[in-house]
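Progress report, Aim 2. The chain analyzed during this reporting quarter is listed below.
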Amino acid sequence: MSQSISIDITPVSVVTTVTVDGVEESKVTKSIDRIEINKDIRIFLNTSAQVTVLRFSGTTLYDIQHLTMTGTDYDNYGTDDTYVNTWVLAQLGYTVAV
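Predicted structure tokens for the chain:
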């Protein structure tokens, strides 16, 4: 079973436009307020690390993103999970909720 860390973030609004037959039908706004970072990080030795992030609106899963850490970020990672958490937040432009 995979492990993940849950981080409450300052809510971020995400607007999705629904288009049917080329016509914009409606806009759905969700507030992303939590992420989970899967700790089963896929490592490509000496190259990169792939991190899976789940984004939530309340208790509802909004989407899943796969972020790839390369270069200096990968070199600085080592085995420090705190570094991964900080890196993911920075990549997504999120801040930890106070």
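The chain has one domain: 4-92. Residues 4-92 form one domain. These observations will guide the mutagenesis work planned for the next reporting period.
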